Amino acid sequence: MMETAPAAPRPKINWLDIVWLLFLLGLAVLPPVHEYHKQLTLVAIGIVQLMERRMVAKWPTRGRNYAVLLKILLATMLINHTGDELSINSSYYPIYYLPVVTAAMYYGPWATILWTALASACYSSYLYPALQEYDLTAESAELLALRILFFFMAAMIVNRFAVENRRQTKRYQELAEQLADTNRQLQRAQAEARRSERLAALGQMSAGLAHEIRNPLGVIKGSAEMLQQKLQDSNPLAQELAGYISSEVNRLSALVTRFLTFARPLHAEPTLQAIEPLLDHALQSVAGQWRGGTVIVQKEYEKDLPLLPLDENLFEQAFVNLIQNAYEAMGEQGGTLRLQTTRVEQNGRSGVRVRLQDTGPGIPAEQREQIFNPFFTSKPTGVGLGLSIVSKIIDEHGGVIRVESNGGPGASFVVFFPQVTHRAELDHASISSPNT
Ligand SMILES: Nc1ncnc2c1ncn2[C@@H]1O[C@H](COP(=O)(O)OP(=O)(O)OP(=O)(O)O)[C@@H](O)[C@H]1O
Ligand SMILES: [Mg+2]
């Protein structure tokens, strides 16, 4: 079943078409008036002209050939019915401008010349019957040549405009596409900037809070331990309660430490590093503690990757978080974790792209931006700080992280690390410039 295009408006009445038809009508009422073949031909010309746009829209290449060919044919018929005695003398010969100009609008210069030559040949073919009865005088030969030359001139002038017009249109289209592309990039950059701002603001707040919580926690913990010692065996219930206080305080203070890592301004100290050993190390430390299903790790490291300016500890921290998430997503069932590294150019910067792909349940599209927010978690015991720390660390390296939907199940995180960060450039500049 054919689907109808939803929003294509019906072509409205084109006033220029009406004016055109009026001109045709003008031809119809000029002599020879009672030549009904002439009137029929004019009607046919009008129909072809009106149908042309639809024809070309339907069959872009064939439609043009048909339009020009039909017009040449009809023009030739019109000449046949309008010459007094000899068709070649018909005053309607300018009707050939119709196919000639049409061809000039649709085709390149050479094809236009060929079509014009065909039109001229059709016109000149009336020479044959004329020569049966009369001789060709020099004067009439000149006249014929003149008319034909004008066909070519008209064709060439229109063609030049048409070609130039097409070139411009193409350029505007390309420009528009470029603009749309730049817009998309800008939007993505804005989203990333917003994310960084959000993190920075939240970071400051939680740093203050965490700091304030830490001190009383220390006092509580100390007191609980002291109580436990003091009570010894005299009051087992109180001792048990003091034990709870102590262990819960431990949990709280682990949380506060995680907060502070997230909140504290990071001080990356990048040095040039090979990326593979760092990735392997992060993999090992997650796998070593893993208590869930079997996870198969597929490493696809590209050979001869460049060294990157990385802070060893922060980099590992980031990838431990990412890999931990992947393991947790695959959970008791286990699965496959693919780790790829590729050398890439991104937005004019060269660097390395790391792709982490697991076979867990994946991330729903509407959560793809939220998961980087602090405290966004879907896990019963999660804090939701892992990815915001990752995001901060990667920012600090001048890199970019994003989630890709790979169509199938599983999540895919793509991280780009540039070979040169602004920070590294600055450091370099301050080292090399004297007196600073
Ligand atoms: N590989 C993954 N597959 C599916 N969902 C994921 C994956 N990684 C992250 N997520 C989703 O993003 C959320 C946020 O992750 P994030 O690491 O920030 O916090 P968390 O793992 O829940 O807690 P924690 O602070 O302990 O890391 C997760 O709760 C989970 O819903
Ligand atoms: Mg996590």
What are the main properties of this structure?
disordered C terminus, binds magnesium ion, 436 residues, Heat Shock Protein 90, 5-stranded mixed sheet, alpha+beta, single chain, Helix Hairpins, binds adenosine-5'-triphosphate
Q: Please, could you describe this protein's structure?
A:
With 436 residues, the protein is of the alpha+beta class. It is 62% helix and 11% strand. The protein has three domains: 15-136, no CATH class; 192-263, Orthogonal Bundle (Helix Hairpins), CATH 1.10.287; 271-429, Heat Shock Protein 90, CATH 3.30.565. Strand 6 (400-404) and strand 7 form a beta hairpin. The radius of gyration is 40 Å and the shape is rod-shaped. The site of magnesium ion has 4 residues, from helix 10.
Topology:
Layout: H1 15-29, H2 36-58, H3 60-80, H4 97-106, H5 109-124, H6 127-133, H7 138-231, H8 236-263, E1 271-273, H9 275-289, E2 295-301, E3 308-310, H10 312-330, E4 335-346, E5 349-357, H11 386-396, E6 400-404, E7 412-418, H12 422-432
Parallel strand pairs: 2-4
Antiparallel strand pairs: 1-3, 4-5, 5-7, 6-7
Helix pairs in contact: 1-2, 2-3, 3-4, 3-5, 4-5, 4-7, 5-7, 7-8, 9-10, 10-11
Adenosine-5'-triphosphate (ATP) is lined by residues 321, 325-326, 329, 358, 360, 362-363, 371, 376-379, 382-387, 411.
